[in-house]
Design goal:
alpha/beta; four-stranded antiparallel β-sheet; 14 strands; about 35% helix; disordered C terminus
């Protein structure tokens, strides 16, 4: 067994001395695509702009990867959420339900369109919200629901869509962290009315440094999307119409789209490798008492932007934070806490959206409770008990083996009773 003095955090030898492999995102295929675009432009071809042949091809190929529909490439995942909301033409000072654990970029667009974010709890033991939690927040003021698939784990879209359909409320899927994830064989992003994806450099595939995509199978919503993403230009309207709505320029560009086309080809392999690595990890965790993987849910195929794990503190003589600090010291790449609860952040608590006005909450046109407090005990319990392992497709069997060995080492040092089952 390991003693606490043998832990790297206490001066013992580090289990993994070599750093874990970096994730290499771009390769020769992307370089060749960019070089061709530059060469063609320099040879007198069309200049590199936006909404050209490369971007149109990327949008078509993205939609085809989701078995049809329409896609509009934009400059970030946050913009994609914003544009999806604009496409739905929601009335100001209505309420939009958005899960408690998400990136701020998946939450901030709601008050920015003068709607009020309403926050359900997470499903028990999860980062994602569930259909029961969402239904509890529906009111006559509810105009839309945003469902994020956090960490690449699909939310319960079957239950959520049943609730949304019953109440006739449109659903936006925030798929920023879930490219290629499936539920009952169906890709996330295809359940709701419209979906937002992020293609920034850290996601499963990218369009360079930043980017995003808005996807829908509804042609009318697609045309609304195009107008909202490009200053209200009259896409799909009769000839002679001028800009039809006030908006900003959220376009992607052909250079980023050329990268995205090559990246999109690699996405199935990236998702497959992450699933295979996660499966090996979970097999190894079966012999460890201190760390629990997420429960297996029939029909769920995550794409694992990260792997969510829980520390079984009841079996240990240490806290979750102490356990995670010890793992980090052994060289394991983890994020000890995922406290992405935007409704608890300063900007939201202090209503800092439009100067010091407190809008949209302070508007007399809002008929709800502007001082409403959202208690999310399930979400708080999840982030307090769980941590994220930053696994990616560049890992090999050694990285999985070292991760399991490090967890076993830390467990052995802190396990109540002195030893884990395999010692």
């Amino acid at each position: 067994m390991s003693s606490q003095s043998s832990l790297a955090i206490n001066g013992g030898p580090k289990l993994r001395a070599a750093p874990f492999p970096p994730r290499i995102v771009l390769g020769p295929e992307e370089k060749a695509a960019v070089d061709k675009l530059l060469d063609d432009a320099n040879a007198g071809g069309p200049p590199i702009g936006y909404d050209g042949a490369a971007e149109q091809a990327f949008c078509n190929e993205f939609a085809e990867s989701l078995d049809g529909g329409y896609a509009d490439a934009v400059n970030s995942g946050t913009s994609a959420v914003y544009i999806a909301l604009r496409a739905l033409e929601l009335e100001p000072f209505s309420e939009v339900i958005v899960g408690p654990i998400t990136d701020a970029g998946g939450f901030m667009p709601v008050p920015l369109i003068n709607c009020i974010p309403v926050v359900p709890d997470s499903a028990p033991g999860q980062y994602n919200t569930g259909h029961e939690q969402i239904e509890a927040m529906i009111s006559p003021l509810t105009s839309a629901i945003i469902v994020a698939h956090i960490g690449g784990e699909p939310a319960d879209m079957s239950g959520i869509m049943a609730v949304a359909c019953r109440h006739k409320i449109p659903v936006i899927e925030d798929c920023a962290q879930a490219h290629g994830a499936k539920l009952n064989g169906r890709l996330v992003g295809t359940f709701g009315d419209i979906a937002a994806f992020s293609t920034m450099f850290g996601k499963h595939f990218c369009t360079g440094g930043q980017g995003g995509v808005v996807y829908t199978r509804d042609e009318g919503l697609y045309l609304n999307t195009k107008r909202a993403s490009d200053r209200g230009k009259p896409f799909g309207l009769p000839e002679g119409c001028s800009n039809s709505i006030a908006s900003l320029n959220f376009n992607l560009n052909d250079l980023s789209a050329a990268i995205g086309r090559e990246q999109l080809k690699k996405l199935p392999r990236v998702v497959r490798q992450r699933r295979e690595l996660a499966a090996r990890l979970f097999d190894g965790l079966s012999a460890i008492q201190a760390v629990r993987p997420p429960p297996t849910t029939p029909g769920v195929e995550p794409s694992y932007w990260f792997v969510r794990l829980e520390v079984a503190v009841e079996k240990l003589n240490c806290s979750k934070d102490e356990f995670c600090k010890a793992l980090l010291a052994e060289g394991v790449p983890i994020s000890p806490s995922y406290r992405h609860l935007p409704h608890t952040q300063d900007w939201c608590v202090n209503r800092r959206v439009f100067g010091s006005s407190g809008l949209p909450w302070s508007s007399p046109s809002y008929r709800g409770d502007p001082n409403r407090i959202f208690l999310c005990p399930n979400a708080e319990a999840a982030v307090n008990a769980q941590f994220n392992l930053n696994l990616h497709e560049g890992w090999g069997e050694q990285e999985v083996a070292d991760t399991i060995a490090a967890m076993r080492k830390v467990e052995s040092a802190y396990l109540k009773g002195g030893e884990s089952d395999d010692h």
